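Onboarding guide, step 5: your first structure request.
Type a short instruction followed by the sequence, for example:

Predict the 3D structure of this protein.
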Amino acid sequence: MSLSITRRTALVGVTGLGVTIALPGRAQTGSVVIYTSNNAQAVEAVTEVGRKRLPGVKFSTITGGSGQLLRRLEAEAAKPQGDVFWSSSANTLGAFTALFEPYRSPELAAIPKALHHPNGLWSAANIHVAVAMVNRNQVGGAPLPKTWADLLDPRFKGKMIIADPANSSTALTILWGVEKMLGADGLKRLASNIKVTSAAATVLRSVGQGEFAIGLTFESNAYAYVAGGQKEISLVYPSDGTFSTAEYLALIKGAPAGELAKRACDHLLSKDVQTELLLAAYRRPARSDIDVAKLVELPALSSIKIFPVDEEEAAAKRADFLKRWQALAAASGN
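The system replies with structure tokens like these:
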């Protein structure tokens, strides 16, 4: 399945964005710091809703890859500098449970129980689907890949790009899934074809600018280019099944903002914010009370074949997988 639609949007990075927000029904003021791997559109969606319904609290963000931010939190654990971590997949968060403290937001009533950490350490804000972002101008008129197995073809050697899974939970989700679907040899063959970059944003930019033909990423990231009017960009949902993972947020252990940090979690999980995230940043909501198809031109999740992966296993074996992948990538010279 491939998708190509138009709407004008640009992807940019943001660091240290500050706005003033307030918490509904409360006269509190203060500061909340969110560490986030989300792009500018997602951050702006959160803060735009906050301007209308949350006056009084300074809400700032520190951005980077999820792996980078988690390692920063680890280094700051004795004296936390952030309040909320937003976001990463369970396959990555599972290795960092000591950084978070339990919090069960009242907003969880609208989010399926399967998407809550059993001990309340994190909660799903959005659902991601892995895709191949294809620049048709760079495939030379050849057929677009239709399956993950197609991407192992030597004709794609040097034409594909993915982020470093040590820094990106997106890349970890995809590469872990590929190995589960196609086996160790499939992962090795993919490594020989693909360029690895340290930053997930580079994947999107380089495919959008035609430097690479294919980028392996999440649907919401790639769709922004399609919606932005780049008709040469298509989203391919591999017909042999693709990988889906929830995007979680968590309350940082010892958060300096205290109770205010919990209210920020409530805000991020609210229907208003998740609706705006879908409209502005194409994030599929975790909430069950938002009809995606009525708001954006993304395929219904039920129409996409999903290849199931065990997130707990991925989290438990993350370190070993990263060593294995790094060896394959180094051997391939990509």
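Each response can be followed by summary notes, for example: Residues 169-193 form the longest helix (25 residues).
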